[in-house]
Amino acid sequence: MSIEPTIAAENRREPWFRRLPVVSHFNKSVGLQRGMLVAGLILTALFLLTAIFAPLIAPYGFSQISDAEGSFPAQQAPGGRHLLGTTVGGYDVFSRVVWGAQTAVMVIVVAVIMSIFIGVILGLVSGYIGGWLDRILVVIADAVYAFPSLLVAIVMAIVISGGRSSLWGGILAAAISITVVFIPQYFRVIRAETIRLKAEPFVESAKVVGASNIRIMTRHIYKNATRTLPLIFTLNASEAILTLAGLGFLGFGIEPTSAAEWGFDLNKALADTTSGIWWTGVFPGLAIVLTVVGLTLVGESINDLNDPRLRGRKKASSGKPGPGHAAAQTANSAEVSSS
Amino acid sequence: MSTNIGSVSDRHTRGSGPVLDIDHLKVTFATDAGDVYAVKDVSLEVNPGEVVAIVGESGSGKTVTAKTILGLLPETAISSGAVLINGNNVISVSASKLREIRGRDVAMVFQEPSTALNPVFTVGWQIAEGIRAHAGHGRVSAKDAKARAIEALRKVGIPDPETRVNYYPHQFSGGQKQRVVIAAALALNPGLIVADEPTTALDVTVQAEILQLLRELRDQYGTSIVLITHNMGVVADLADRVVVMYQGDVVEEASARVLFAEPKQDYTKKLLAAVPHLGRNSASAGMTERAHQGGKVLVEAKNLTIEYPGRLGSPAFKAVDGVNFTLSEGEVFGLVGESGSGKTTIGRAIAGLNKTTGGSLKVLDYEMLNLKERTFKPLRKQIGFVFQDPAASFNPQLTIGDCIAEPLIIHSKPTPAQARQRTRELLESVQLPAAYADRYPHELSGGQRQRASLARALILNPKLLIADEPTSALDVSVQAKVLELFKEIQAEFGFACLFISHDLAVVDILSHWVGVLYKGKMVEQGLGNQVMGHPQHEYTKKLIASLPVPDPDEQARRREEFRAVLGA
User: Fold this and answer.
1) pLDDT tens-digit map of B402-453
2) What are the beta bridge partners of residue B498?
């Protein structure tokens, strides 16, 4: 009890990088949960690295159909100069799969950032102010929810770009259509958190000292309401890929000359399957599956690890009590013994 | 296996050894921060017909010990040692054997009766559930089970049990719900009942009834009781023997009378000294008339009414009904009442958190009846507020320093250096090290957080402080220190204070003038020592009679003396 409690507390705080979302989750995990998280992280890292280094990895451009040695052969089986074969149009499948990762990342980043910003702001305002504004926003969000997301995405794609477009036009069209579908999700999560936090004593105590509504929203509620965002982010990223692929598959994607897109390639591969040409469909499909599995594993692992009831722990009985425990006890005992 | 509702003689044939024998129990939890030794080495015995109280402050391991007795520990816990109930070691028996022991040999009464009962089943069904579970292969007929549920309800003093057996939990009051929980525990006539804080969630007048019931059960049926509590008054009222726990270890074990009269260990002495004792250490001792009446009146309520709108078709609920009082500069006004008396509503209305609906409430000459946030805001810097739960009243994302400086930043826009300087001064006044400004709220203990909360309320040097149950979430030893600090600071800063609490003894320590609220009406107000010593109103009398004092002999005398008032 003679230990100075301050020292104990100083030791307890972890360096900032160990408190980052994914890093802290990794440190908390054990066993199967850690395995799932690691598998997801590896797949996601692979996806991101492929996207970033696409120009270095891909042997050819996404719209390249010929090089110095002449035009590429059409529908060539994997092997030789074309690692994963070529399509009916003479595109190199491997190159298009690699470039497709880049398109996917861009769409995810644009879509998720737009929907997070708008969704969080609307959720905060709607939850905190309440009243008729809240009711109208909830009704609109519910209405958007009720639409099949792909249908909304198609309508948006038509509205925004007339259904076909350049690289950024296509990416924006896909991203905005995904945004429209995702805003209600962020909106609802943040709104629910805001309503819960509004009744917390620390918000009331801010009200009592005379803090303005904007100050309460930005300083007190915002930070506490957005803690679940990394989770929704990862789960939505995988959904964004699926929506993008769905759009491309239906022909609302990006032209093959402006960017590579997995869904579009899958669509073009449909006719090949009957003639036994498997490589044009399997590889873009596999890319979609692995990316979605990777992101979902990360998201679900974070979800489980965030919940103390779902989180697995090492068995007790060996080892020393943790630093947090010791510090809390010294703090308590210092308080009791200092009387 | 006998499933009869046994009699006392039946119980005694089971043998005269202890009902419960805990031998070198250790419980370890796996947490994120490493292993936590919740119970380090506990050994104790409970004899037939004995009430053993396990007392301790939060984190002492008393509840973990209680849960071990019924094998209710979560998966993350590992226990060693032995917990013998009628010869069965609860720690090592199989799951099916454990189910057999639960209910038949030992039963549990939980802290919160409203969550311990399932709201979608009738109480009769819930009591009968245990009976059916232990019927073995011979089924218990529905009629039979119901008859026994009625019998159990009658035992715990529920009036008209034949009708009430078909009621749902929400049709009972809090105290009656706890009686039902006890009836369910008694359904199979176990030799031992483990009661984990059985009265903590209840009002003091209801608490007195439940304690009386538990005492009768022991006297009439010879049931042994393990009573887990932090309330020394409850211990003095009910327990035969007391086990004091501190940080997972048994510090002292003695019969109740010996423990209260001559505690041996330092910790026990400190703990007992910290328990507020009604009538001792009164703030109004020696006063004969109300003090501070020369000063300005800061709060004046005239026929104050606060209603909460009812649902469609039902009338509005009057939380506060025609209350009159004044609070002058420098005065400490203690507002006492049980849950639902409207005491918190009044406090919140003064801070502008609730709207008033009738009469007049003047705060610093501002009429709260038509409160406009814009016009009231300048007055807010003269009002400080201390919330009940120190853990929840701090933004977990901000440091303590930021939290304390918040009112200052809002009202006077200081430079960061000025804010830091003032924060440091305030931390010093509430006896916290200045370095604590950089900590986050969860890194402080409950008492430290409540001091910081006091610092935040005082940073603008307010004229008026509203303290809503500021110590009810704290352990007694911590509460004693916070109260002492509060008293010192009030004398030093000289602010007027509305001190709201359900605990008469706590209110008496601080307040010069005390008001007693009952169902929204102010039934009595006067000098602290007058109200506590010579209560006039029936309700105040009952309230004071119900409050157990931490002294077994005095409490036994009081119990006899107040039998008439309590109507028990």
Assistant:
1) 899 999 988 888 888 989 999 999 898 888 888 888 888 888 888 889 889 9
2) B333, B466
From CA B195, how far away is CA B379, in angstroms rounded? 48
Nearest CA in chain A to B376: A210
In the 8-state DSSP scheme, what is residue A221? I
pTM of the model: 0.78
pLDDT of residue B79 exceeding 80: yes
CATH number of the CATH domain containing A191: 1.10.3720.10
Residues 210-229 of A with CB under 8 A from B: 210-212, 215, 219-220, 223-224
Q: In which element (H, E) is residue B325 found?
A: strand B317-328
Q: Does B315 touch chain A (CB under 8 A)?
A: no
CA distance A265 to A284: 7
Distances (CA, A) of B247 to A334, A339, B65, B135, B197: 13, 18, 12, 41, 18
Give the number of C-alpha atoms closer than 13 A to the C-alpha of residue A49, restricted to the C-beta side. 7
Type of residue numbered B101: I
Look at residues A140, A108, A109 and name the one whose alpha carbon lies nearest to residue A122.
Answer: A140
What kind and span of H or E run contains B229?
A: strand B224-229
Residue A84 lies in a domain: no
What pLDDT shows up at residue B10?
A: 42
Q: How many domains does chain A have?
A: 1
For B297-396+462-535, CATH number? 3.40.50.300
d(CA B9, CA B109): 24
- Residues in chain A within 8 Å Cβ distance of B274: 339
In the structure encoding, which two tokens stand for residue A175, read together?
Answer: 């991203």
At a CB cut-off of 8 Å and minimum separation 6, what does A103 contact?
A171, A244, A254, A259, A260, A261
Element (H, E) at B517: strand B513-518
Closest approach of chain A CAs to the CA of B149, in angstroms? 35
Examine residue A32 and state whether it is found in any structural domain, yes or no: no
Instruction: Identify whether A172 is part of a domain.
Output: yes
Classify residue A30: in a domain, yes or no: no
Are A305 and A234 in contact by the 8 Å Cβ rule? The answer is: no
A209: contact with B, CB 8 A cutoff: yes
Please provide the average confidence, as pLDDT, over all residues in chain B. 86
Name the nearest CA neighbour of B405 among B424, B432, B378: B424
**Nearest residue in chain B measured CA to CA from A224:** B397
Range of the domain at A293: 92-312
Q: Are A241 and A295 in contact (CB under 8 A)?
A: yes
Rounded to whole angstroms, the Cα distance separating B190 from B101 reads: 9
Q: Taking the C-alpha atoms of B201, B207, B209 and B212 in order, what is their torsion angle to the nearest 10 degrees?
A: 110
Q: Cβ B397–A223 below 8 Å, yes or no?
A: yes
Instruction: Name the band, by pLDDT with cuts 50, 70 and 90, for residue B252.
Output: very high
Q: Do B34 and A321 touch (CB under 8 A)?
A: yes
Q: Is B41 helix (H, G, I), strand (E, B) or coil?
A: strand
Question: Could you tell me the sign of the dihedral formed by the alpha carbons of B170, B171, B174, B177, in that order?
Answer: negative
Q: For chain B, give every domain's residue range.
A: 122-189, 297-396+462-535
Residue (of B477, B415, B485) closest to B455 by Cα position: B485
Quickly list DSSP for B414-459: --HHHHHHHHHHHHHHTT--GGGGGS-GGGS-HHHHHHHHHHHHHT
CA dihedral in degrees (B432, B438, B443, B446; nearest 10)? 30
Q: Is B485 on the interface with A (CB under 8 A)?
A: no
Does residue A339 sit at the B interface (CB-CB below 8 Å)? yes
The token pair that represents B131 in the structure block: 């009976």
* Total residues belonging to chain A: 339
CB A162 within 8 A of CB A155: no
